Amino acid sequence: MGIDEVKNIILEILEEEGEIEKEITGNTKFIEELAFDSLRFITLVVKLEEKLDITLEEDALLFDVNTSVESFSQYVKKALSNLR
Amino acid sequence: MLKKMLDYAIHNVMYYKNLYSNFSGSNLIEFYEQLPQLQKTEILHNIEDHTSNEYKKFPQNRYIDVHYTSGSTGHYLKVLWDRREHLKSSIYLARMRYNYYGIIPEDKSVSFFTSSYYGNRLVRSTDFKLNFNGKNIEFCKINLTENRLYNIINMIHDFDPVWFNLQPSIALILADTYTKYRYLLPKSLRYIELSGEYLTTQVRVKLESIFHVPIVNLYGCTEANALAFECPYGHLHCLYQNALIEVYQENKSVINQEGNIVITSFINHAMPFIKYAIGDKGRIIIDKNCSCGLETPIIELKYGRENSYILLKNGMQLNVYVLIHIIELANEQTNGIIEQFQIIQEKYDKLTIQLVIKNSYENWKLEIESMFFKFIAEEKAFSDIQWQIKYVQKIYPNEETGKVNNFVQLIREE
After folding, report:
1. DSSP letter string over B214-232?
2. A30 vs B contacts (CB less than 8 Å)
3. How many CB atoms within 10 Å of residue A53?
4. Is A45 on the interface with B (CB under 8 A)?
5. Is B91 close to A58, i.e. CB distance below 8 A?
6. Inter-chain residue contact B90 with A38, CB threshold 8 Å
7. Is the ipTM beyond the 0.85 threshold?
8. B278 vs B261: CA distance, rounded Å
9. Which residues of chain B have a CB within 8 Å of the CB of A61?
10. With contact defined as beta carbons under 8 Å apart, do B247 and B261 qualify?
11. For residue A44, what is the domain's CATH number?
12. Number of independent structural domains in chain A
């Protein structure tokens, strides 16, 4: 579990917006390529947390650090490993 | 979290640095206990001393956003936030909103604003604006004429929001407009969040009866963002990740007793607010088992602000609670017919009470007045005051602050 799960949830959010043409890889950038703003980012976090039953640490929200799907998914992995 | 914030402040913020240099104790908690309560006036006069040195220079200053308090106490405070930290502080509220009510930040919302800022500059207000890629429509609170409200309701209908994020007085205005013209409610509407003013039971009941969706109270402030959020069981749970919320009676922190609310933000490093007297009154309850399952402290808010005093000729000051209590009593005995009220002190010996009462109770006016004057007569300090009771259709928010003040003091003290 990791990037794929994150990718699926991002796709889910984009689907709700009717934007399903985007191809998402680990290198995809949230702001530049997916046009994420703060609302969309928080939406991603709460949906992901609910789906995986995890709580991400606050730093996961730092836009300037977590610019890509890959870097954000590191926080997801970390939260999942804390569960074990 | 408290120690971490204190440590940051004594190293980066002049106000706390100075206090710490005169501190002779041994640890940070002791320092905290000895800290004076921070007042808004202190920050207003020394804003530089309350700004983190780290945020005065590159690279941290790139992240600064300026927020402004509503100015309901008469003074606007410029509050600095690192936009990344503001985002962090929003997540706790977003989680609760989603878990309790199924609302996600991206759900379409309606809100109202008083002032507009372009970057950090105050600019002339526009009629409405679309924010967050069209997910939020925000209407200007100023000049809410009947004609404009008609347009707003139509725009809300076309926008079809999932939730409203309003102040109670604005929610009432919308509710009355919907009722008066029998407009259809937005079909997607399923939640209303209220903040910025005290929410009375009467207002809540009225809004529930008109909108038929959960009416939820949020307690927060510009300085620390969300502080407490109402669960489906009606309890305002403290968002302990964002701030420490305490209640003080003079210099003593109390639990289960009423006093002044004092907060410490755990998130805002650009402008740390430590032991900050926010100007509201309330009670912290820690031993209540809430059916929602959350074990965090609960806060019960009380009417008004601590600096609301009726001034008497003999130099005496009476907290406006005395009058508010009388209105509460009158409401209790009449099954809540007073929907809104405003107490205005024009002169030392002249006070006007503006009341909005339920339409169907028009012929109860004499009864309300006799009840009111009976209570007044019991308070000796009021014996030389000339009272006037005025009935109005609606009490609108102050155009500058965007809030309804329950007490308006027009006497300017020398």
Report:
1. -EEEEEEETTTEEEEEE-T
2. none
3. 9
4. yes
5. yes
6. yes
7. no
8. 6
9. 84, 87-88, 91
10. yes
11. 1.10.1200.10
12. 1
Answer yes or no: is A19 within a domain. no
Within a domain: residue A57? yes
Q: Which of A35, A46, A63 sits opposite B94 (nearest CB)?
A: A46
| A20 is a domain residue | no
Residues in A closer than 8 angstroms to B163, CB to CB, are none
Instruction: Report CB contact under 8 Å: B105, A43.
Output: yes
Q: Does B105 touch chain A (CB under 8 A)?
A: yes
SS3 state at B358 = coil
**Helices assigned H by DSSP within chain A:** 3-16, 38-52, 69-83
- Its pTM stands at 0.80
Which option is the CATH number for B82-103+190-305: 3.40.1620.10, 3.40.50.12780, 3.30.390.30, 2.102.10.10? 3.40.50.12780
d(CA B88, CA B135): 20
For B:108-137, CB contacts with A below 8 A are 132-133, 135-136
Cβ-count burial B375-395 (b if 16+ within 10 Å, e if not):
bbeeeeebeebeeeeeeeeeb
Equal fold, B82-103+190-305 vs B309-409: no
Residues 6 or more apart in contact with residue A61 via CB below 8 angstroms: A41, A42, A45, B84, B87, B88, B91
pLDDT tens digits in sequence order for chain B, 414 residues long:
899 999 999 999 999 999 999 999 889 999 999 999 998 888 888 899 999 999 998 888 888 888 887 655 545 688 999 988 998 889 889 999 999 999 998 899 999 887 655 555 555 567 898 988 899 999 987 777 788 889 999 999 999 999 999 988 889 889 988 988 888 999 999 999 999 888 888 889 989 999 999 999 999 999 999 999 999 999 999 999 999 999 999 889 999 998 989 999 999 999 999 999 988 889 999 988 899 999 999 999 886 554 567 888 877 767 676 777 777 777 777 777 888 888 899 999 999 999 988 877 878 888 888 888 888 887 777 888 899 999 998 888 776 666 677 888 888 654
* Length reported for chain A: 84
Query: Is B87 within 8 Å of A39 when comparing Cβ atoms?
Result: no
Q: Which domain holds residue A34?
A: 3-14+25-83
- Given the candidates 3.30.300.30, 3.90.650.10, 3.40.50.720, 3.60.110.10, the CATH classification of the domain at B309-409 is 3.30.300.30
Distance of CA B107 to the CA centre of its chain: 23
